[in-house]
Fold this sequence. Notes:
CATH class: Alpha Beta
Number of strands: 9
CATH architecture: 3-Layer(aba) Sandwich
CATH superfamily: Thiamin diphosphate (ThDP)-binding fold, Pyr/PP domains
Oligomer: single chain
CATH topology: Rossmann fold
Largest sheet: 7 strands, mixed
Strand order of the largest sheet: 2-1-3-4-8-7-9
Helix content: 25-40%
Amino acid sequence: MSTLQSAAEAPAAEPGSDMTAAVAPVSSERKPTDGLECVFQRPASMTDKPLHYCPGCTHGIIHRLVAEMVDEFGLLEKTVGVCPVGCSVFAYEYFEFDGIQASHGRAPAVATAVKRCDPSRFVFTYQGDGDLAAIGMAETIWAAARGENITIFFVNNGIYGMTGGQMAPTTLIGQKTTTSPTGRDPLTTGLPIGMCELLATLPGVAYIARVPMSSPKGVNTAKKYMRKAVRAQLEHKGFSMVELLSTCPVQWGLTPVQAMKHIDEDVLKVYPAKVFVDRVDAT
């Protein structure tokens, strides 16, 4: 059972500000003038526009990882990111590469069209759980079943963050939301859906992995998994997806620190972190 409170029951971080603003990375144009070595700066694939995400949200960290992947593989001029409806609907504002804003749930279909029209492009979708596992379930399943050579970065925080904290397909049993104020009841709303477990059964899948974004170790592992997913597409192996277990302190009714602990203590019990499918290095 989840120990989460509703957003109305407990104090939480105020939305609309960016926790990372105080430690914004140095842009690529700025160089130290005091003789010190610059050891941290913004990826070339990211713009200098301040992020709009709430304090404690892990979208900003994941954005940076995406940009680092694009930079490290030298894909800035070849990348197309597809970001549908959700908290990351304006993600195209934060990246220097081409972006498309897809209709709610339709990102895999849009990405499929782009990739088929121009196979030389690196095409990824950036989707939340409400988008990918609810209204977009059909598009997700069929893109994987066809083995479409696209990559999905699936940001799973178990709630509809942008629209008011409603229950999502990945909401935990007992978790309180605005549409399950007494906690999710499996007798009336079903059980949480494990998208990695579901997609791993399909032969068109080349790489599937899940990782928590609740610690530096998790972030480092996420980067490793994301690199593998990118390779799957570049090497024409088929469909790839990395699920990133993320926070939503505001809609969870928790502080940022409590939200990170919730991932480790509750979410991982339902959504175990591991590599489910890895056919990238298979001959």
